[in-house]
Amino acid sequence: MKLQLFKMTLAVIMVFAVLAGCSGNGNNGNNGNNGKGGNTGATDNAGGNSDGESAQKEEPVTLRVSFFQGGYGDSWFVWLKEQFEQQYEHVTIELEGNPKMNEIIQPRMESGTNVPDIVFVDDSLMRKWGPAGLLTDITDLYQEPLADGKTIAGTITDSTDNAMDVFGKRYGVPWTKLTQGIIYNVKMFEENGWTYPETWEEMEELVEQIKAKGIAPFTYPGQYPMYLFPFGHAAYLQYGGPEFIEKLTNPSEEDIPSLYEHAGFKRAYGLLEQMIQEDWMLKGTLALNHTESQMEFLRGKAAMILNGEWLENEMKDALPEGFSMRMMPIPPAADAVVKEPVIESLTSGFGGIPSASKHQEWAKKFLLFTSTEEANRKFTELTGSSRAFTYSVDGLPISDFTKSVLEATNTYKTIALVYKPQALEESPGIDAYSAIASGSKTVDEVVEANMKLSPDKWKEKQKLLNTQ
């Protein structure tokens, strides 16, 4: 009986030993299959951890993020690093920020040496590197669900979506946007009972009311004609329509030179000429630089200024106590093709994945993480600027002016001209804005100059493209 009991006990011990051995072998096998070579969990959206990711926590991953460290600083990237590492404990984010990153990163990318996993730099580099095979095509990522259930495709602004398009592919997500339009003195408007106009005809009436008070309706940094671009670009869309914008930014040889006598140009230039000839501008505006014109606006010498979202931060030490301003779009006239107010919203920078990165799936996950509403709101909170997405800023500790910038791009149609390589841009024969603003050329003379010189400019551009 004892012998039989001993045999039964021994058999049970052997069974447990075999099971323990099998269990150990199974764990070892799983660890081996879920290392760096098998990122099964890394393709999930940015919202949660899969079983594959849990297994990978024992296999550390380091993502190197290189970024241009300019006026936005590095606080947003530090926040991204902390939040991402909290969510994925086995992932380490190494940050490399530098004010000269746009220059530093180019030889590294093009030689394949010391290439990071993610770059946040100037978007012109995206259009250069993408077709050259140096960036990963992330077109599909635009449809991936984010942690908040949204998608990049569903929240990106129209003008930015166009800017991200490189021959039908997407090689990056937008970083920030620069909004430029008309900024008005809120307190002055309220005290005089003025309302910001919804149409150009209403703007004409408002201008006369402002002039009657002895105040200049407008000013801008007259030394820099590019401050007039947001006005003109909005007008191109309003009076030329989407087809004109497409021809302007992506012309064929057949479009030259007739493109430059298009009604979209003539009407846009004509409106600017009206503003100059009818004394809409503060006297002496042409001699003012950016800070001087902005000071005149803050002093109440002009009711409105053509400027961008950086104005408040740039002039923060000079803002009068209680001063309030608001960003608004360019209103359309009755003959507009696109009968909507339009505001220019330019893409500034992109986040992309070098094709040489060894951690493609985790890099994609990080880009998705940077594009959530939470990340967008945090960027605005930390920098006072906006990302190129539509998102709520309710409850954020930001100024009323910053809120107005975001509201403008979320509410109104946006425009950003993104020129294809063969395009001549908008004024190949003469600096149209400078000539019209100074009164040295009429609209007809500007149009004639552009038409006359554009064929030769086209040939020069094609020759240059063919040698690259």
Name its key features.
11 strands, 18 helices, alpha/beta, 9-stranded mixed sheet, 2 domains, 468 residues, D-Maltodextrin-Binding Protein, domain 2
Q: Kindly identify the CATH topology of the largest domain.
A: D-Maltodextrin-Binding Protein, domain 2
What is the total tally of β strands?
Answer: 11
Query: Ranges with pLDDT <50 over ≥5 residues?
Result: 1-56
What's the order of the H and E elements?
A: HHEHEHEHHHEEEHHEHHHEHEEHHHEHH
Content-based structural category: alpha/beta
CATH 4th-level superfamily of the largest domain: Periplasmic binding protein-like II
Helix percentage: 40-55%
Number of helices: 18
Give the CATH architecture of the largest domain: 3-Layer(aba) Sandwich
Signal peptide: 1-20
Region (Disordered): 31-58
Protein name: Extracellular solute-binding protein
Keywords: Cell membrane, Lipoprotein, Membrane, Palmitate, Signal
Q: What does this protein look like?
A:
Keywords: Cell membrane, Lipoprotein, Membrane, Palmitate, Signal. This is Extracellular solute-binding protein. It comes from Paenibacillus chungangensis. InterPro entries: Bact_solute-bd_prot1, SBP. The chain is globular and about 75 Å long. Helices cover 46% and strands 14% of the residues. By secondary structure, the chain is α/β, with parallel strands linked by helices. The N terminus is likely disordered. Strands 1, 2, 3, 6, 7, 8, 9, 10 and 11 form a 9-stranded mixed beta sheet that branches. A two-stranded antiparallel sheet has the order 4-5. The chain contains 18 helices and 11 strands.
